[in-house]
Design a protein that fits this description.
about 350 residues, Immunoglobulin-like, 3 domains, about 45% strand, binds 2-acetamido-2-deoxy-beta-D-glucopyranose
Length: about 350
């Protein structure tokens, strides 16, 4: 099946064009078969709470993945993530409360009972075809049936300081609202609370720290709960989970996503033809080796004014001029940037001639 028939309806054409583009530009190895598993954290969720639907065992060689509402309806896309361009695109049933992360997890804020139902995670391979479907049922419970549940206000929250960190830098995952009667706190790498993923724990009663199996020597847990990560690498990108245990045996679990940025390398600008006739069309493609970058376009060394004769792909990596005019002649460049750095491509000149 082609992307056009597989992915989405007319209302969501951006995904389509995007995936076609992605499959044209990439040259990935054939995917390996892996059994993707889905998990909801917490497993039981009450309306008004947040939930994380995570996907484990993602195969290596894939170009994109997407979450859908329901089991079979391909028109009900929530969000799609392209690994090649490291962008997340929203689908027709995105409610504004969902965030899709690069590891496949879907974070749904402030769930309602209407969110109850099947969620399907689909992996798209290099031919733009669906390689696997995995489904999970999410049951959102009514808050009316939950007696004496404490409000969310008292739950611990985590903030990343700074918000964006570059490779070899340091970041503090600062914890607020720790329970006053805290007994032990645990930090885990990833979204799962598993002994083998523990970074470290701190026991208030004895004022002792214990390192876990995934402690790399670069992490420090403070008595106020905060976790300091030093000399980070891009491999540190991902979720971190804090679990607190109070003296009354109440457990709270909180997640944070950390993005480690690398300085960008110079992008490469390619054009379909460098001499075009008036009224024809031309496509520029900006290729970047980096993940997590944004792209902007320059024309004659100034920001490009995108007119109605031009179209940018959803991730901005392609610029198409449909009806070329004389005034489009000149030097084009693209700039790749992330929160810590930016690099501009070498210029590409476009010549415009009459018929
Ligand atoms: C995935 O589900 C869709 C919709 O039900 C179906 O068309 C497709 O063949 C399935 N693909 C795989 C690999 O199971
Ligand atoms: C959560 O959703 C409800 C309606 O479903 C809304 O009244 C409330 O303000 C929302 N809360 C937050 C924190 O967004
Ligand atoms: C926790 O302690 C660390 C190290 O002393 C400090 O940098 C951080 O600001 C503290 N966090 C809070 C929330 O006070
Ligand atoms: C950071 O890590 C790199 C490689 O892992 C190492 O070469 C370097 O010495 C470390 N720097 C510090 C300040 O620990």
């Amino acid at each position: 099946m082609e992307v056009s028939s597989v992915l989405l309806c007319s209302g969501c054409s951006p995904w389509q064009g995007f995936l076609l583009t992605a499959s044209l530009l990439t040259c990935w190895l054939l995917p390996t078969t892996a059994q993707v598993t889905l998990k909801s954290s917490p497993p039981q969720v009450v309306e008004g709470e947040n939930v994380l639907l995570s996907a484990d065992n993602l195969p290596e060689n894939i170009i994109a993945f997407a979450w859908y509402k329901g089991e079979t309806d391909m028109n009900r896309g929530i969000a799609l993530y392209s690994l090649r361009y490291t962008v997340s695109l929203t689908g027709p049933v995105h409610s504004g409360r969902e965030t899709l992360y690069s590891d496949g997890s879907l974070w749904i804020k402030n769930v309602t009972q209407e969110d109850t139902g099947f969620y399907t995670f689909r992996i798209i391979n290099n031919h733009g075809k669906i390689q696997s479907n995995t489904t999970l049922f999410l049951h959102v419970k009514s808050s009316l049936f939950v007696c004496g549940r404490p409000s969310n206000i008292d739950e611990p929250t985590i903030e990343s300081v700074p918000v964006s960190v570059s490779e070899w830098g340091s970041v503090l995952l600062r914890v607020h609202n720790l329970p006053e009667n805290l007994r032990t706190l645990f930090w885990y790498k990833g979204v799962l609370v598993l002994k083998k993923l523990e970074i470290a724990r701190y026991r208030t009663t004895k004022n002792t720290y214990e390192l876990g199996p995934v402690h790399s020597g670069r992490e420090t847990v403070y008595s106020n709960g905060s976790l300091l990560l030093q000399n980070v690498t891009w491999k540190d990108t991902g979720f971190y989970t804090l679990r607190t245990l109070s003296t009354d045996l109440k457990v709270e679990i909180t997640h944070i996503y950390l993005q480690v940025n690398k300085p960008v390398t110079q992008p490469f600008l390619r054009v379909t033809v460098s001499t075009v006739t008036v009224q024809s069309s031309v496509v520029f493609t900006c290729l970047s080796d980096n993940t997590g970058v944004s792209i902007r376009w320059l024309f004659k060394n100034r920001n490009l004014q995108v007119t109605e004769r031009m179209t940018l792909s959803p991730s901005n990596c392609q610029l198409r001029i449909h009806v070329v005019r004389r005034e489009d002649a000149g030097q084009y460049r693209c700039e790749a940037f992330n929160p810590i750095s930016s690099k501009t491509s070498r210029p590409v000149s476009l010549a415009v001639i009459s018929e």
